[in-house]
Amino acid sequence: MSELVTLSKNGDVAVVTVNNPPVNALSPGVPEGILAHIQTAAADPAVKAIVLIGGGKTFIAGADIKEFGKITSGKKTRDVGLYPTLLAIENCPKPVVCAIHGTAFGGGLEFAQACHYRVAAPNAQIGQPEVKLGIIPGAAGTQRLPRLAGVVRAAEMCAMGNPVSARQAHDWEIVDQLIDGDLLTGAIAFAREQAASGKPPRKTREIADRFGDAAENAKGLAELRKQSAKQWRGMQAPLRAIEAVEAAARLPFEKGCKKEAELFQECLFSTESKGMIHVFFGERTVAKIPDLPKDVKLIDIKTAAIVGAGTMGGGITMTYVNAGIPVVLKEVDQPALDRGLDTIRRNYGVSVQRGKMTQAQVDAKLAMIRPTLNYEDLKEADIVVEAVFENMELKKQVFAEIDKVAKPEAVLASNTSTLNIDEIAASTSRPQMVVGNHFFSPANVMKLLEIVRGKQSSQEILATSMALARRLGKVGVLVGNCWGFVGNRMFGPYMREAAFLVEEGSKVQDVDATLYEWGMAMGPLAVGDLAGLDVGYKVRKEAEHQIPKGMRPHLADNHLVEAGRYGQKTGAGWYRYGKGSRTPVPDPEAERLIAEAVQAGGVKQHPATKEEIIERTIYGLVNEGAAILDEGHALRSVDIDIVYVYGYGFPAFRGGPMFYADTIGLKKVYDRVRQFEKAHGFWWKPSPLLKRLAESGQTFAEFDRQKWGAAE
Ligand SMILES: NC(=O)c1ccc[n+]([C@@H]2O[C@H](COP(=O)([O-])OP(=O)(O)OC[C@H]3O[C@@H](n4cnc5c(N)ncnc54)[C@H](O)[C@@H]3O)[C@@H](O)[C@H]2O)c1
Fold it and tell me: According to the model, what pLDDT value does residue 553 have?
């Protein structure tokens, strides 16, 4: 029999163990192995009861996600899935007890539900997280779970996807018994008790008294629909999950399962699910750097130094100490240092207020920060991260100082958002040790880290940065050294188009609302206000000479900045803000200033449709992304997608800008870009790669494959 699953005996109890490390995923062979062993045990007269358990550190942590991709790409047909296997387990005439430790997620929890009883280690976790991949449970999870936990709780688990602790699951009667001490011993004893009771095994599908009150359920589900529309804005899967669970209380088990299968199929073949699965695998793909040998020696990072305790330096410091790496924090003078430390303390204070950390934990973190005003104190650090103002001359001076004191083997990283890493590196005696580590604001929260490869950055430095990103809880994406790297460079056309749409007559709040509804975490103009309109203004002023004569410059946002409206920090930008508030309020005064600028510039007025708002802004991202890819400043299109999903609030269910363009069809995207070029000239030069792919009927995903071969 399959080695993935083994059968042993403990007296009159058979033990079926899943051994598919690391997480006992339901790869081909596992479900079949479990069923075969259970049937063997059922046929053995010496066996009175059966325990199903996971070997190693966990029960079955979920489905093998690669299998979903095989089905949607047509490499494999989805027959009837796990449904009959689970039914056969449930039909076993001897009691089957599932013993859960670690996690029982997705298909793992559906296996557990098909067993007659469940026991669990108190620190185990269970959940139906399928919604995070844009699908719903597909092996009767939406039908059995409400028979155990009630309709509303089951719907919440399936629609929100959050894990539930074993204790909670015990309270909710999903788990029959918590077992302190050795789980297998406890499970065997429990199984023996069930066999001795002489009662027929309890089939979950036949439990009918736990659904809950119909009127209460209707109220609970209406509330849940609202909640999931907020949390999973724009997505279908959570609503389908609720619909499937609702059907469980209404239909006989078999019919309910048919309904679930229909909804599952609909979700699996949706672009929403393909987008989310793309992001899931993308996060793993970006960790693979084709020209970095696997055995590059990593620099051991035990301590760090951060230069600059402003917005970013403070957040980066928190990121390091949260990962257990002590930090020396350097500033220019005592007031700046005090300000930086105060902000860090305040931020940790919020975590204490919210019950996420204890004061003792915060004190321990704060004790890991050593403030200083002297470069000399950086000499022990294994990595120095510079986060001073975005000014090349200043950065060069700072790096020259760092170069004087840092250990020869220290990583020298800059958090610059746009500046040339090679120029910064040239101010040191060791450009091979210099790299960009571009965090996103707030640095202790945002998951993205762009790792900028300088011309001379050594393999050790790059590999260390990638490994360090993981240790810091970030997703590291290697990017090339061009202005703004990947994320900020693409953000330029996106923000420009949002501003231009307003200049052409769309309302600020309409542009933002359209993109928010489409799935972006925030509207672009509200983002502009958050980041500070003066930042883009400065950049534009420096690049003004590059705009050909007769081409339209930025009118409205320049005018706003010149009127002292820098965004949230001045209480007004595209919107106005109440004192101390971050909530954007549409502002007639902004409208007046915009109209003034537009009139002076003679811009023709035609408010855009929602479709045009999306095409202008999102295709702006795609066209620039294609240029970046063509130039080799991103390794693969999926790297760009991951930058946007993790750094810029791009909706995961659309898979990232490049994946989204593939789903629209590059020909259609290219045709629109050409129309925009006709209307706006200089600003919309189509990327040669976009043109090539569109004309040859290819996708960005195919481009990736041709360049690097199929992803593993
Ligand atoms: N703010 C963002 O959203 C963001 C996001 C990503 C990257 N960045 C980049 O991070 C860097 C810092 O930006 P910020 O927003 O934190 O700026 P900030 O103005 O909040 O902080 C800069 C800090 O650097 C300090 N400083 C200046 N010279 C110094 C020196 N010689 N030694 C020590 N400290 C010195 C200043 O006193 C100030 O506290 C910039 O390069 C910026 O482009 C910013």
Answer: 82
Other beta carbons within 10 Å of 605: 11
- For 370, the enclosing helix (H) or strand (E) is strand 369-372
pLDDT of residue 1: 44
- With the most atoms of ligand 1 within 8 angstroms of its CB, the residue from 331, 388, 420 to mutate is 388
Range(s) of the chain covered by CATH 1.10.1040.50:
505-607
Q: What pTM does this model have?
A: 0.93
Q: Does residue 442 have its Cβ closer than 6 Å to ligand 1?
A: no
Ligand 1 pocket, residue 310 CB under 6 Å? yes
pLDDT, tens digit (0-9, with 9 covering 90-100), for 132-174? 999 999 999 999 999 999 999 999 999 999 999 999 999 999 9
What's the CATH fold of domain 5-269? 2-enoyl-CoA Hydratase; Chain A, domain 1 (3.90.226)
* Paired tokens of 607: 């408010």
The radius of gyration of the chain from alpha carbons, rounded to an integer in Å, stands at: 28
Pair 644, 650: CB distance under 8 Å:
yes
Q: CA 175, CA 125: separation in Å to the nearest integer?
A: 11
Q: What is the mean pLDDT of residues 399-419?
A: 97
Can you say whether the dihedral through the CA atoms of 465, 470, 471, 472 is positive or negative? positive
Closest Cα partner for 551 from 498, 603, 594, 507?
A: 603
**Is 631 a known active-site residue?**
no
Q: Which fold has domain 505-607?
A: N-(1-d-carboxylethyl)-l-norvaline Dehydrogenase; domain 2 (1.10.1040)
Decide if 97 contacts 51 (C-beta within 8 A): yes
Q: Is the CB of 306 under 6 A from ligand 1?
A: no
User: Which protein residue's CA is at the shortest distance from atom 40 of ligand 1?
Assistant: 390
Which residue among 130, 260, 386, 497 is the active-site one? 130
Please choose, from the candidates 378, 621, 311, the residue with its C-alpha nearest in 3D space to the C-alpha of residue 495.
621
Q: Is the CB of 61 under 6 A from ligand 1?
A: no
Annotated active-site residue 130? The verdict is yes
Q: Are 554 and 572 in contact (CB under 8 A)?
A: no
Distance in angstroms (rounded) separating the CA atoms of residues 540 and 115: 64
- Comparing 31 with 710, the larger pLDDT belongs to 31
